[in-house]
Amino acid sequence: MLDHGEAVVVAVSGGPDSLCLLHALHSLTAEYALCLHVAHLNHRLRGAEADADAAFVAQLAAEWGLGCTVEACDVRALARARKLAIEEAARQARYAFLARVAGRVGTRKIAVGHNSDDQVETVLMHFLRGSGLAGLRGMLPVSELSELRLGEEPTADGGGTRLLLIRPLLHVRREEIEEYCRAHGLQPRFDRSNLDTTYYRNRLRHELMPVLETFNPNVREVMLRSSDVISADCDYIRAQSDEAWSRVVTAESEQAVTFNLAGWRKLPLALQRSTMREAIRRLRRSLRNINWVHVDNAVRAAVAGNAGTRATLPQRLEVVLDYDHFVVAEKGYAAPLPDLPLMPQVEMALRVPGRVRISDSDWYLKTDVVSLCDKVPTSFAAIQDETMRPASPWQAYLDYDVTGKVLSLRPRCRGDRFWPQGLGDNPTTVNHFMTNAKVPRAWRDSIPLLVSTERVLWIAGWRIDAHAQVTEDTERVLVLTFEKARAR
Length: 488
Fold this sequence. Notes:
- Helix content is about 40%, strand content about 20%.
- By secondary structure, the protein is α+β, with helices and mostly antiparallel strands.
- Mean pLDDT is about 90; it is low at about 375-380.
- The two termini are about 55 Å apart.
- The strands form 5 sheets. A 6-stranded mixed sheet has the order 3-2-1-4-6-5, sandwiched between helices. It has a 5-stranded antiparallel sheet with strand order 7-8-11-10-9.
- The chain has 3 domains: about 5-215, HUPs (Rossmann fold, 3-Layer(aba) Sandwich); about 240-330, Uridine Diphospho-n-acetylenolpyruvylglucosamine Reductase, domain 3; about 350-485, Phenylalanyl-tRNA Synthetase, Chain B, domain 3.
- It is built from 16 helices and 22 strands.
- The longest helix has 30 residues, at about 220-250.
- About 35% of the residues are buried.
């Protein structure tokens, strides 16, 4: 928690916990060569009492010869503006204030007075809200301030130095803290709002915990042990999840995380849940509590769903399945199209032979006509083996006397029909073929179709029309090749 000679911002409200914390750290100043700076934020929720608390902290810091920053924030107005509960608005304002003070002081350490009773209440609160392991482990003795989901990621210097939150009293009971204050003649302030059970945490403290203690007087110790066990398990799963993330995530941006579906489905359930939760966390860093139910529903959809399946997540996020991948992104997100010869919603006439550029792209379609009459050897099988093997899915060989010279390139239209090569004489619609061939949904409206006046001749990248394939009777071959313009 502490390095020799460093500065530490100490959050001091004036209550027993923070007063005990400040006194304990102050007593270690000589041993650790610490430079303590006191920080107090007046939330303006308790009128004159809050003003008196601020004055008390400032006077105490002056008496002990410590630097001190006292500021005020209208938390009620902040809660209205951000549409938050008072507790959450106060929390965000308090930690944002501490981050600013740390930046001015030039330190990356902020000490707060959370104790073991706070830990029990936090674990219980997360349990009741349906948290995963990360929530059930409670608060950590040392953590990055960014993990608190404040809507920003505060740094000590604005240049990437992470602020650390330290909790030196996390394993100390509240009654021990109060006894410490009495033993050292400390006179903490009393915050009457701590008795107000309209606040969620206060209700847990004053109403629920006493009931639980009637079932087990040692319930606090039991929950603390559970928190320690869960914390160790969580660390192990996090390490495994990080390794799995590198294997199953194929693309990541601020807008979306894309998973390899087959690889992700092979993961153990625990890692499926943890990687799903991590995707949500990365896309919504301000989201404080990721509900277990949302994660579980999303995992179920990704495990058992088909292409097109969707699952709703918090803050307008959703999971969308495709054939070989799924995406976690904001609703309505359109993935960038790949660097393939995809086309806009236009029809383009072709020159045969010739070369035409695909609108709004660096791709061209080159057309050539090759006569087979003078080819040697004359065996069709040999010709096919030697010269009729497309170099890629974006090249095709067709019977030119079947296709004709009047050709165009366009995207699919409603009602397009197609006789896929290799599927007998059974026609199908282009839409049905694309579905069966698992053409990604986002690409389907941009896949180029080679068409004549009579039929679809080639779904570029996938299949040619059976009627236009090269046969033993073919005399002239239409060679179509998509090429990308070379960078200058």
